[in-house]
Design brief:
It holds the Pfam family MobB. By secondary structure, the protein is of the alpha/beta class. Helix content is about 20%, strand content about 25%. A hairpin with a 4-residue loop joins strand 3 (about 75-80) and strand 4. The model is unreliable at about 195-200 (pLDDT under 50).
Amino acid sequence: MRIQDDHHAMLRAPNGTPIIGIVGWKKSGKTTLTVRLVEEFVKRGLKLATVKHAHHAFDVDNGETDSARHRRAGASQVAVVSGRRWAMVTELRGAPEPNFEEIIAALEPADLIIVEGYKSAPIAKIEARRVKSLTTKPLADDDPLVIGIATDHAIDGKGLPVFDLDDIEAIADLIERILGPLPRQANSESSAGAQMQDPE
């Protein structure tokens, strides 16, 4: 079955931006793969957005910064703005975590969204595997939306294309083939990222 024929697969965000996921168990190399794919697609002239599904509580603004003090004082949302970048930090304070679709819908238009984590998300995915991974059970065995495997050791892909983890150009080429021709924004000079807590 082609990924395009799976009606449960989300190949594009509500604003039309193509989406690809990078999944794998802890220590599988998915963060390094994500970073290198971002670099590769930026070199190809694309504007990237990323989403990182964090496994633990995280803090993007800690210490004694003014904005951190705002949050500790009880502010539910704090915007930090400068001439180079801006960020919005939202404290859930017991409210439900935003779901995957809500996070994707909140991103600004880009040429490609790369999602790290979200194993159960209904998106096309590349699975990362390493010998040193803390878990070795293949995700592709139970997920028909995995379109390829990037690994540092010899494996049987069981019909899926298998790439060396360092063969970034070939992996990027596969993503472009699966998602179709990727559009190029007029000004593709930067990438954006969002991070949220991962319940997995």
